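queue> pop job 88
queue> type: inverse folding (structure -> sequence)
queue> payload:
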């Protein structure tokens, strides 16, 4: 199979680095181009990047010479561009690239809530990809597909089996979000060590806006509080769910275990028999230190599933913010675009 050449915008950042890591030896994609600020053009990636991933930076990517984001010729041979830019940078460039006929899968918030842009969690709302064809017609082949906010992804995956099989009336959520969610320059050690910060930018509004778009459910009641905690990787979510009809803990566990991802088995989620790890007998799990690694960071761990009444339940879920919530999420979208013949 001929591989598709791809590039990464924001390759020096935390999410960009995870993309570089996960694109090594990918069966569908060949990473050829790394974009950075114009002043870094021509430098070797290894000279510029402050590498933070656990695996070693592979020599092929290390020796790529950086391209400038605004050098339009550098996009010519690419079948897809991953964006791991800050929202401020993405605001300026992603729309311009789409106009120039380029396909982008983005981690930034800039286009998430636009009507013509899919806000895609491939396991949940695969049909949203239909919007790609509409954009391609309008923008000379160009399109944007957005990955939701990392909490929106983790929460969506935790509740999807329940929403699809039983129906959800309301959600009360409290998040415990890791440091890596703030990016490489987000938080100083002094701010977060032995501390909890009980708010994060505009995060609560983003989750309240994005969850209804993922599930096409504007009527779902959502109350949320977010917290930054001194965890390295992996967000934890405590979720109280009111279901539309009476159910049981047993039925909830059953629907989670039987859930089939709408996108089917793609390379980045094909390593396990289920995308869920359900703790039925251990009331001290999930924990981000352990569960953020489940399914190479692409899985969701769920535990402490308890009944409050016969239509109210609580559970605790862990999802890897930088992988399933960002780099791996955009890679899964790209795999789906390839499988559906859209790139
Ligand atoms: N971290 C997570 O867990 C997570 C999860 C979901 C979504 N996201 C989203 O993913 C994106 C990347 O996040 P991150 O955590 O990787 O952030 P990060 O570590 O701060 O990286 C940001 C990247 O954007 C580049 N950049 C920033 N301003 C720029 C400008 N004006 N022109 C060109 N490049 C610019 C940076 O380049 P320099 O190195 O040159 O500064 C860097 O490569 C953000 O939109 C974020 O909201 C992050």
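queue> result:
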């Amino acid at each position: 199979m001929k591989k598709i050449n791809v590039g990464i915008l924001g390759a020096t950042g935390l999410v960009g680095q995870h993309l570089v890591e996960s694109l090594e030896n990918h069966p569908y994609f060949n990473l050829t181009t790394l974009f950075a600020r114009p002043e870094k053009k021509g430098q070797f990636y290894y000279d510029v990047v402050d590498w933070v991933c656990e695996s070693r930076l592979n020599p092929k990517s290390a020796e790529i010479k950086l391209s400038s984001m605004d050098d339009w010729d550098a996009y010519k041979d690419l079948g897809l561009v991953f964006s791991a830019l800050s929202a401020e940078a993405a605001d300026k460039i992603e729309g311009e690239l789409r106009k120039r006929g380029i396909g982008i899968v983005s981690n930034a918030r800039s286009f998430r809530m636009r009507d013509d842009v899919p806000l895609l969690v491939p396991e949940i709302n695969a049909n949203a990809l239909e919007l790609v064809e509409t954009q391609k017609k309008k923008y000379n082949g160009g399109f944007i597909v957005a990955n939701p906010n990392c909490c929106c992804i983790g929460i969506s995956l935790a509740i999807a089996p329940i929403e699809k099989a039983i129906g959800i009336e309301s959600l009360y959520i409290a998040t415990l979000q890791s440091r890596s969610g703030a990016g490489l320059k987000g938080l100083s050690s002094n701010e977060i060590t032995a501390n909890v910060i009980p708010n994060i930018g505009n995060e609560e509004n983003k989750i309240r806006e994005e969850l209804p778009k993922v599930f096409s459910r504007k009527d779902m009641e959502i109350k949320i509080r977010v917290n930054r905690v001194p965890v390295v990787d992996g967000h934890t979510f405590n979720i109280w769910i009111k279901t539309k009809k009476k159910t049981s803990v047993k039925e909830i566990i059953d629907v989670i275990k039987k859930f089939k991802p709408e996108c089917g088995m793609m390379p980045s989620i094909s390593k396990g028999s289920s995308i869920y790890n359900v703790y039925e007998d251990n009331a001290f799990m999930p924990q981000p230190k352990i569960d953020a690694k489940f399914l190479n960071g692409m899985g969701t761990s769920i535990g402490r599933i308890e009944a409050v009444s016969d239509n109210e339940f609580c559970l605790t879920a862990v999802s890897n913010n930088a992988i399933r919530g960002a780099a791996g999420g955009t890679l899964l979208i790209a795999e789906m675009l390839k499988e559906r013949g859209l790139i």
